[in-house]
Amino acid sequence: MGKECVLGVEQLQMRYGTRDVLHEVTFHVDRGEVLALLGPNGAGKTTTIEILEGFRLRSGGRAEVLGVDPAYGDERWRARIGVVLQSWRDHGKWRVRELLAHLGSYYRAYSTAEVQRPWDADELIEAVGLTAQADQKIKVLSGGQRRRLDVAIGIVGRPEVLFLDEPTTGFDPAARHEFHELVRRLAREHGTSVLLTTHDLNEADRLAERIVILAGGRIIADGTADQLARRIAGQDEVRWSCDGQAFAKSMTDSTAFVRGLFGQYGEAIRDLEVRRASLENTYLSLVHESEAR
Ligand SMILES: Nc1ncnc2c1ncn2[C@@H]1O[C@H](COP(=O)(O)OP(=O)(O)OP(=O)(O)O)[C@@H](O)[C@H]1O
To answer: Which atom of ligand 1 lies closest to the CA of 49?
Structure first.
């Protein structure tokens, strides 16, 4: 079965005044796919996401989300997308369950046979790990708990496409782990397509099936973490020790190297370790390469 593209930009351009900040950016996301948009500060990630959310008008090129040009998305279209915005501080007096039930009620009119809207408030609260805080006022929540609430607000309408702009900033490691599980479940079980920006390369590696790297408003890489790693030389690092001496070497074909090593030294080889280039190495190398051009 062919994959269904739910979101895409082609030759996308953005100009602020006389400055071009996006240059012919082209990528797409399939149904149920998690795509991470990475890039240094100022690369154009938020601008791209805001254009796709319909919050910003592009200067050129094409954009489509769920078959609609975001510049002309109506309420029905908006009900099918989810956006995680930063903290709902103005609602400090509301209680968690109360706010989610209230916001969810706006989506009821957009419920369909395939997608029941909104998400039941208690089920949603459990899914984001806020059960113990369900009856607390928002102003007493910790930073990480507020962020979980932001995520709950973003998905209360059971969106088909979810935009997450640096979603786990301020999460403790356990909250981050639970959040990753939630995003995977949304993609796998509910077919939600996710476009995520993050500076946490571990997060991108764990969550995303595909990674797009933007630098200076241009796409410099697009592929799986493995495909990107293969683009940089010396991708694997092999470490071993022999007769009490430690060795380390970077190479492209570690399998052949290890075979040769055992052929030559056999039983004398100890502490063998083979490491694929981390996404961090790959990312730094690709960004550095693009800056040198
Ligand atoms: N409203 C605006 N007016 C003028 N320039 C802007 C505006 N918003 C963003 N920019 C510029 O556009 C470029 C891209 O910004 P954007 O916020 O999209 O980058 P980003 O990749 O999301 O960065 P970060 O990782 O720091 O969040 C930057 O050079 C920024 O200064």
So the answer is: 18
